[in-house]
Amino acid sequence: MTDNENKNLPQKDSPIVSNSSASDDAGSATISEEKISEERAVSISHQEIFFGPLPSPRRLAEYDDIKPGLADRIVAMAERQASHRQETEKLGLTAQIGDDRLQRRETFIGQFLGFVLSSIIIITAAVSVYLNPTWPVMAFASLIGGGGVYGIILAFRYTKHIENNSESQSE
């Protein structure tokens, strides 16, 4: 488009000028002015979201306007509730730590006693074969010694199984 054509296009909020070529005899042009109007719908919304144990400061002020001192009572109530919740959580964690220590101690004692018992069984089987190297004693000692080794393996596997179950339950 050329500059002359751009001048003839209506601009926003500018009058529309139209040249009438119907009356060329006098060389006059008819100018009609029309405004381009736009309707705009404007929507303004205000949303206020407040999270926490207390109402928003504006709401607290409104409570205080209703009854003087009410906002202070609400804040004090929220502080007492937070203090109570923290104390309860602290007691729960302390109890859980004590339970975990007790469980570790019981697990250690069980493993130690299982190791001692299995070692006694294996040593008894080895001594009986050494003192009487006949085939029935050897077969009996193999069963007893094998049972002792199996007992050690089973004790450690069972402990791992319990530890894995307690970890999955705590999650």
* Terminal CA distance: 72 Å
Poorly predicted ranges (pLDDT <50, ≥5 residues)? 1-6, 8-35
Mean pLDDT: 75
Summarize the biggest pleated sheet: none
Radius of gyration: 46 Å
Protein described:
This protein is mainly alpha-helical. It has a domain of 37 residues. 67% of the residues lie in helices and 0% in strands. It contains four helices and no strands. It is rod-shaped, with a radius of gyration of 46 Å. The N terminus is likely disordered.
SSE topology sketch:
Blueprint: H1 3-8, H2 57-66, H3 70-131, H4 135-170
Provide the descriptors you would attach to this structure in a database record.
171 residues; mainly alpha; 4 helices
The gist of it:
This protein has 171 residues and is an all-alpha fold. It has helices at residues 3-8, 57-66, 70-131, 135-170. α2 crosses α3.
